[in-house]
Amino acid sequence: MYSVISKDGTKIAYDKVGKGPALILVAGAFSYRRFPQQVELANLLSETFTVYNYDRRGRGDSGDTPAFSVEREIEDLQALVDEAGGSACHRELLLL
Predict the structure, then answer these.
(1) For the domain that residue 46 is a member of, what is the CATH number?
(2) Are 32 and 87 in contact (CB under 8 A)?
């Protein structure tokens, strides 16, 4: 397990696997990085990407602060983007 510190000082936990361009997985509201399907997806994608699979704020090993806000979630993601090299390209991956 690795971690980064978000803008407000909250620890954000993540796992990193694979080699290649950075890809950050954003789990759904009721998931976390060690959810079996999330781990399986990270491992499959790791053949092509360096996958950052993180616990969103308030989940798993990540910290939390009172009063949820979308802005804090964006700051958490920015901390991971910075850790992954500093730039990001938005792509949606749909699994059916």
Answers:
(1) 3.40.50.1820
(2) no
